[in-house]
Amino acid sequence: MKSTIAFLWVGPDISIPSALVASIRLVMGDDVEIVHLTDKKTPLVPGCNKTQRFALSKNIMVARLQAYSKYRYTSGLTFFCDADSLFIKPLIVDANGKNLLLTPRLQDFLINDRYPEHYPEFTGKMINQVMPYLFGAIATIGDQSKTFGNLLKICKALPDRFHRWYGDQYSLFIAINNNELEFGLLNPSKHLHITKEVLTSDQLQHLKKEGIQMITFKGPDSKVYLKETMCNLKKVIG
Predict the structure, then answer these.
(1) Can you tell me the distance from the alpha carbon of 62 to that of 221, in angstroms, rounded to the nearest whole number?
(2) Fold of 3-188
(3) Does the pLDDT value for residue 1 go beyond 80?
(4) Domain boundaries, the chain
(5) In this structure, are residues 229 and 87 in contact, taking their beta carbons and an 8 Å threshold?
(6) By three-state DSSP, how is residue 206 classified?
């Protein structure tokens, strides 16, 4: 059975998820199934095998957990990723007998509890104290709808600010602290390499040699970084 890569994207501008899908096809061809999770109005993203549409909250943290809980799971591997990502090598995941694989955060730093809103829960805390796992790369084996349904329930019970920001990661932290999840780990050095710049052809070649499979773009100009890096990726692989 083919592995599946699934992503959430809502909105009329589909240039970012289109680049993600193009990178997947460039690197893996038709060897992987791609599923777009979205609302009732977002345009189709070219290259996807399936589009699963749901009635989603306008708050992105709630919407993501709704989509992951309503996603129609297969018996095989599903790799959930952020749409502002590019694959530079084929997806390979070693589940080691686990049905849920999370990505640990590599960097630790003092949270700004005033950005983008006031979060008194974070005052004086390092980020790994309250959000030690990232949501940008999660792998599942089989049906994990109950797992994400429970995270959705936790998130909805939090103050509204968590529905807009941080709610997915903070709900995951709460569930883990309550011993509600059994999980293994993805390798963030391979499955969620974060960058805040355009990657040149030489840089992409180097990252490929290091075994990195997926890169995710962050920062105010991440859309530009992603598009320009995609052009360079085509030179490397095309």
Answers:
(1) 25
(2) Spore Coat Polysaccharide Biosynthesis Protein SpsA; Chain A (3.90.550)
(3) no
(4) 3-188
(5) no
(6) helix
